[in-house]
Design goal:
Blueprint: H1 2-7, H2 14-39, H3 45-52, E1 74-76, E2 80-83, E3 91-100, H4 106-120, H5 130-149, E4 153-163
Antiparallel strand pairs: 1-3, 2-3, 3-4
Helix pairs in contact: 4-5
Organism: Ensifer adhaerens (Sinorhizobium morelense)
Protein name: Flagellar protein FliL
InterPro entries: FliL
Length: 164
């Protein structure tokens, strides 16, 4: 019996197994890089040079120009974070932008911001669940904005809406 055990082949060592896996990983990575370079060649030089020198936008910052600026009649309100009426453990975060008909009025925008924040404190989770509940919330906020602004705000744009 001892003779059979001595003639049995030994399993490969752990170092040899790790080295084989490392070599295969490097070959797979190199092959992926090569195939990726063949399938998606680098962009033309004109496109690379155009992205190096971005133009200044309406706010004076570099990058893509922003459409939602006060010059275009759009005012981004500060984020509204408050707890719901029921269950009070749930919080809501809402970011809204207002589109004015003509020049924006910052004082009116702040009044609308406070009105929306006060309204959200009266809403329960059951009222705003699902797509229909979200649409009701949008309609209610739009109606409040219309009443507060006397038609000077033409559109309420939801940027983010999170319930936690």
């Amino acid at each position: 019996m001892e003779e059979l055990d001595s003639n049995a082949p030994k399993p490969p060592s752990k170092v040899l197994t790790i080295a084989a896996i490392a070599v295969l990983t490097l070959l797979a990575g190199g092959g992926g890089w090569l195939v990726g370079g063949l399938l998606a060649p680098p962009p033309p030089k004109e496109q690379v040079e155009a992205t190096k020198e971005p133009a200044a936008n309406a706010t004076g910052e570099e990058g893509l120009p922003k459409v939602a600026t006060e010059a275009n009649g759009v005012v981004q309100l500060d984020p509204i974070t408050t707890n719901l009426a029921y269950p009070s453990e749930n919080w809501i975060r809402l970011e809204v932008a207002l589109q004015f008909d003509g020049l924006p009025d910052p004082k009116l925008a702040e009044q609308i911001h406070q009105d929306i924040a006060a309204y959200l404190k009266t809403v329960s989770l059951q009222q705003i669940q699902g797509p229909r509940g979200f649409q009701y919330l949008r309609d209610d906020i739009q109606e409040r904005v219309d009443l507060r602004s006397d038609g000077r705000v033409t559109n309420v744009m939801f940027r983010t809406f999170v319930i936690q």
